[in-house]
Amino acid sequence: MAVVIRGRVRPTGFTPGSTVIGQGQPMRLPRALVLSITALALVLPGAARAQSILRDAETEAFFRDISKDMIVAAGLEPQSVQLVLVGDPSINAFVTGGQNVFIHSGLITAADNVNELQGVIAHELGHIAGGHNVRFGEGAGPATNISLLSLVGAAAAVALGAGEAGMALLGLGTAAAQGKFLSFTRDQESRADQAGANYLGKAKLSGKGSISFFEKLQGQEYRLAIPQNNEYARTHPLSSTRIANLEAVYKADPSYNRPIDPALQARFLRIKGKLIGFVEEPPRVMQIYPESDQSVGAHYARAYAWHRSAYADAATGEVDKLLATAPHDPYFLELKGQILLESGKTQEALPVLRDAVARAPNEPLIMTLLGHALISTEDKADFAEAEPLLRRAIARDRENPFAWYQLGVIYDRKGDAPRAALAAAERYSLEGNARGAAANARVALNGLPKGTADWIRADDIALVAGDELRKKKR
User: Fold this and answer.
1) Considering only CA atoms, which of 126, 59, 134, 64 is closest in space to residue 93?
2) pTM over 0.70
3) How do the domains of the chain map onto residue ranges?
4) Are residues 86 and 109 in contact, defined by beta-carbon separation less than 8 angstroms?
5) Over the stretch 38-79, which tens digit does the pLDDT of each residue have?
6) Which of the two ends of the chain, N or C, has the fewest CB atoms closer than 10 A to its terminal CB?
């Protein structure tokens, strides 16, 4: 498992957020609306501003498998919808930027079963299928108009000498703007709830998990002393209202009493244990998963906890117990290889990671890890093995800055400066570093044959990065 923070791979670093489930996309509001609904910032999902993305091959494969039928039910293409794990301890999920669903690590650790997670994903798919990202302006626009009209009225009153009356009018206008906007977002949330219920039904999945997760949110609201009698000051309906509206729909569905798929539940418990081992402090991990717990998730969690505490032998011991039960599991092999590599045992890691890639030949993250291990040897023969491997990884996942960095190292060692610069431009572009992307794209353009695929790609990066730099100067 790796953490990408603004595109850079780092060992840790998570940003806390809020506890709401919904649309929650990053947004640029008109200034008048921002002034009128400052308090709203307290309830917008902080996850939209989180800077860490957790990448894990097993978790991403699991997300694809549990969501595929719901995505099809929503009329979307499975290959077009991306589920992303965000390193944030709050219980949240949100959609933004096209067909992307972001799921907080805190939501996974709070969920008890895969069906609860599927209920949340179904709701987020309701936002995507409903075009709520695109239609956000329908709510913001009317609210802004109310604010602007109130400002005009207030200015006229002040100009006539009625200062107190003008300020009172301004207060009424901003309250109306906030109310209009909140009403719009609550309606979108309700629509997403109903759409999600429809997708679960079509996918022949029970809605029990959706109900039980809303009950968890309701418990959070009680603990935080959030008023349960005033829905009009919220972006989302009250959890009690959502439960009441959904229960009748779910109970009427033939799949309501359908049991959870035991194989998917086992996979959920695996990735939950792995995630807890990665995000929680080691002493806390040992409390949650004591030595008496010999489940797969517990071994995963303790392996990460020992590894993060620099006890490599204890960490590999936990993985070896996993491999004793499933010697060809690619994800167990991947973890053992990662621990060995990061403990300085590169030569021991190589055969383990080669086996992992052979067992999971379509997993770009595992390919990238092996490529990194091969480059770490500084052996030309290993570089020759790493280059096609990293090219395959990038062909399957172009949005991995670490893979581009590794490929750039290979080009640099070969003396291919233009392609090393192009790889750096790709990396910087993914990291949001427009200046670095533009500079390296120009170097690549000067050295690559004009009109080739690589030259055209460098030109594209240079144009996009240049536009971003010009916008920043305005």
Assistant:
1) 126
2) yes
3) 2-251
4) no
5) 222 223 333 333 348 999 999 999 999 999 999 999 999 999
6) C
